[in-house]
Amino acid sequence: MNKVKPYMAVGNRIGKVLIILLVLTVLFVWLLNTPSGLLGKADAIGYAVCHRIDARSFHLGERPIPLCARCSGMFLGALLGLVYSASIGWKRTGNPPKRVLLIMGGFVIAFIVDGLNSYLHLPFFTGVPTLYEPNNTLRLITGTGMGLMIAVLLYPSFNQTVWVDGKPEPAIKNLKLLGILILLALLLDILILTENPIALYPLSILSAISVVLLLTMVYSMIWIIVFRSEKRSRHLGQILFPIIAGFGMAMLQIGLMDLVRYALTGSWEGFHILF
């Protein structure tokens, strides 16, 4: 029986090497077949998850940024929420208290209401009554609120899955910490609303990075659960392989969605809808 273990170890190493090679292959193929330049790659990421309608997006000069106003808010809000949670409560596994979740639930309701109202303003629904005239400012703000909710739920879930020495208290444990996060989110939105290229360019890249990060976190959790490795790690080095595999799955999903959309539209541009 003792002789079996070395062979299993070798087999595991070979399997990991093959998966890493597959991840690199997926990344290489995606990089090779998507628009050139840093913004071009960011556009390709946004292309996989967002309609990118020109009129519903902020602009860098004449070009729309990689994600529409709502998606920009959501993914940047999620990134902000994750960074904030990690900075104040590294490895915290506790879920937020009810009063925090109640406020976050309000953000979700606002996201749904504004999204539905905005959707009903598409030309397909001419004559359908709506609540108000939608605009990109509301799309951005409600999207950011939804992003904060995603972060508040995803952060403890990831920690619960990964760490053996996780701390049971929540990262955002009171309204004061939530208030600081909301204030930071409002400042973020103000920066975006200026459409100043100095701020908008890096935020555009970060929004695309956030898409990949969120998908990577989710797929990494799935890998860890599938291979029954929950709560076995103490530092980031011990989850490096699940993160690499999760990143590969994230890029595969993005690549497949890019492929399907491009096959249907023949263009890397956003959907063209007349308003």
Description of the molecule:
With 275 residues, the protein is mainly alpha-helical. The chain has one domain (4-265). It has helices at 4-32, 38-49, 69-88, 98-119, 136-162, 175-194, 197-226, 240-265, and strands spanning 59-60, 63-64, 92-94, 167-170. The chain starts with a helix and ends in a 10-residue tail after the last helix. The mean pLDDT is 93.
Backbone structural class: mainly alpha
Proportion of helical residues: 55-70%
Shape: globular
The ordered string of helix (H) and strand (E) elements is HHEEHEHHEHHH
Please report the total strand number as a whole number: 4
Tally of helical runs:
8
Give the strand content: under 5%
- What do the pLDDT scores average to? 93
Strand arrangement across the biggest beta sheet: 1-2
Count the domains.
1
